[in-house]
TrEMBL record:
<protein>
    <recommendedName>
        <fullName>Endonuclease/exonuclease/phosphatase domain-containing protein</fullName>
    </recommendedName>
</protein>
<dbReference type="InterPro" id="IPR036691">
    <property type="entry name" value="Endo/exonu/phosph_ase_sf"/>
</dbReference>
């Protein structure tokens, strides 16, 4: 169900320069109607507000247009999303419902590498991105916009400071070795200073490269997770055998037997377990 409902649903769906009296009764009735019909908004992108009155002195923005769906709709179109564009010469935003988003697009996964935090202007860049002005909207909308700004700042830092990190580390080491060769041949104050700066730069890239490879190996482990989980399952304790030679495989019972075994091992006067009673 989609269209102009001529009614806002929550207080954050309106913005006005001057005082605007909220249609509280209409909002309550609209909420009751959607609850009764088991309808909810589909995922929305683009503009938050969908209508404006076009009056400069008393400008009002409202979210009047929406696309609603029930549980059956969401089960059949789990990847659907709604896009509201800028209105142009209209007072309402045009709306597009995309039913095949996964068939035509591929999301680029954002990966945060901790070596970004070693960049000299990391905190400054993140703070600046977080404090950028956000268009008026719900708290969730504002949070999403702030996180997008921070992701862009991280990508920019990565591109400018750490792109092709392996080559940068090799170049930094080659530069350091060149300075050291000249320093050990014809020492000078300038070369001492250059060697100090070059060593610091190489250490910086070496540390970043180490973090990069560690993270990459973790990603590879997750990619091959099925095999790793199989290895874990093979080495896990599946069951224990109690003093009556009865198999115990319930999770809580296994835990209790393990605790009791180690209590006995540490000297408490309880029944003893032999190592042969433990089975993998």
């Amino acid at each position: 169900m989609m269209g102009d409902f001529n009614q806002i649903l929550t207080s954050d769906e309106n913005y006005s320069i001057s005082t605007y009296t909220l249609p509280v009764r209409g909002m309550e009735e609209f909420q009751e109607c959607l609850t009764l019909c088991e309808l909810e908004d589909n995922e929305t992108r683009g503009t938050h507000f969908t209508w404006e009155n076009g009056q400069l002195e008393d400008h009002i923005l409202l979210k009047l247009d929406r696309v609603l769906g029930n549980q059956s709709w969401r089960d059949n179109f789990s990847d659907v999303y709604v896009f509201f564009d800028a209105p142009g010469d209209s007072d309402h935003s045009p709306c597009v419902v995309d039913l095949n988003v996964n068939l035509r697009s591929r999301k680029c996964i954002f990966k945060y590498f901790s070596f970004l935090a070693t960049h000299p202007i990391f905190l400054e860049a993140i703070k600046s991105a977080w404090e950028k002005d956000i268009p008026v909207g719900s708290k969730l909308f504002s949070l999403g916009q702030k996180l997008n700004h921070v992701k862009k700042a991280c990508r920019k830092l990565n591109k400018e400071g750490f792109s092709n990190i392996q080559q940068r580390a090799r170049d930094a080491l080659a530069k350091l070795q060149d300075i050291q060769s000249r320093l050990l041949t014809q020492p000078s104050d300038n070369l001492f200073r250059e060697e100090f700066v070059a060593r610091k730069e190489w250490k910086f890239f070496e540390k970043a490269e180490g973090i990069f490879y560690k993270r990459k190996s973790r990603i590879r482990w997750l990619t091959l997770g099925e095999g790793n989980f199989g290895h874990q399952a093979q080495n896990a304790i599946q069951y224990l055998v109690d003093n009556d030679d009865q198999r115990v495989d319930q999770n809580e019972a296994v835990k209790s037997m393990a605790v009791e075994y180690f209590q006995t091992l540490l000297g408490q006067e309880t029944r003893k377990f032999s190592r042969s009673q433990w089975k993998n």
